Amino acid sequence: MNPALIRYIIQRCLLMIPTLLGVLTLTFAVIQFVPGGPVEQMMLELKGRGEASVGAGESSGGGATPSQYRGRQGIDAERLKEIQALYGFDKPVLERYWLMLKRFAMFDLGQSYYQHRSVWDLVVSKLPVSISLGLWTFFITYLISIPLGIKKAVRAGTRFDTVTSVIVLVGYAIPGFVLGVLLLVLFGGGSFLQLFPLRGLTSDNWAELSLMAKVMDYLWHLVLPITASVLGNFAVITMLTKNSFLEEIRKQYVLTARAKGLTENRVLWKHVFRNAMIPLVTGFPAAFIGAFFTGSLLIETLFSLDGLGLLSYEAVMKRDYPVVLGTLYLFTLIGLVTRLVSDLAYVLVDPRIQFGSQGGQR
């Protein structure tokens, strides 16, 4: 392997450490001032008030001192200490911060306060839903957008180009959640037709179905949420493909190839295609890996899909700090690694690109 490339990878990996520390430190610091933490919620529950929301003037359940809790009134001091110890708030802030970093360094994401399961188990349990949404959205978007973008580049300026541009831009302008509501009203048994199921990825009698019936049932449940998810993605990939091909078509080597008598198909697929696809191919790793962790809160909520988006939202609302910090750490790390993989993909698809010795720049 090229020494410059190895040096670049090492430098990028080292830069991931301060980035992760910065994200975790900022989030951990904010948590200390967020009102309605788990300690206060537990005290309110013990007082028979349930998990009532805490007003803006009330203190946090994170790093605040016991005397600051308005909900402490009527709670025995010893009982308060037990609750703080239960959630780990009996330790100083810096000690808790250090313990968190040590756990994360060993990829221990901790335990959920309320679900009594490890954060790893929760993430894994939600992955099937997010993978289904993410991968189908990824494949359908690229399978439609790339051929459409190529066709638009070849026929640039024609009526076909204008009409398709309007269609994809209108789809881009419609929020996925609004489109999902419209699809449910039209085809999910709202005011019109009941052609598709309303919730979940499978039917209640899933276990009783044959293999082929299970596949069809699964695909049938995905039609509405995937449609709501992919429509807004077409515009970006389609226009990127079109612009990339147009840029290559206008270059001198294409004029030279045409002057030599090569057919348009040979020029397009043998010369233009390879160079024009570089920006798209290099984005595949990040888009593909990111699809495994795609979590759309609004889509998941609308279609009753229990995925990573809903998990993150509920963790924030319930102040389930181990889930918030653990998933944030995991997703930030995955994002940094996939960005590095995307950069390295440039070298694989275009050997002309070299990683220089000056700060690892390309």
Structural summary, described in words:
There is one protein chain. This protein has 362 residues and is mainly alpha-helical. Helix content is 66%, strand content 0%. The chain has 16 helices and no strands. Helix 5 (119-154) crosses helix 13 and helix 15 packs antiparallel against helix 16. It is globular, with a radius of gyration of 26 Å. The two termini are 16 Å apart. The relative contact order is 0.13. The model is unreliable at 49-72 and 357-362 (pLDDT under 50).
Describe this structure in a few short sentences.
The protein is mainly α. The chain has helices spanning 3-31, 38-46, 77-86, 93-105, 119-154, 159-173, 176-187, 211-230, 234-249, 252-259, 264-276, 278-281, 284-291, 297-302, 308-317, 321-349. Helix 1 (3-31) runs antiparallel to helix 16.
What are the defining features of this structure?
362 residues; mainly alpha; disordered C terminus
Topology as H/E string? HHHHHHHHHHHHHHHH
How many beta-strand elements? 0
Mean pLDDT equals 78
Rg calculated over all Cα atoms: 26 Å
Number of helices: 16
Strand content: under 5%
Helix/strand class: mainly alpha
Which residue ranges are poorly predicted, with pLDDT under 50 across at least 5 consecutive positions? 49-72, 357-362
The description of the largest β-sheet is: none
Q: End-to-end distance, in Å?
A: 16 Å
As a percent range, the share of helical residues equals 55-70%
Question: Which descriptor suits the 3D outline?
Answer: globular
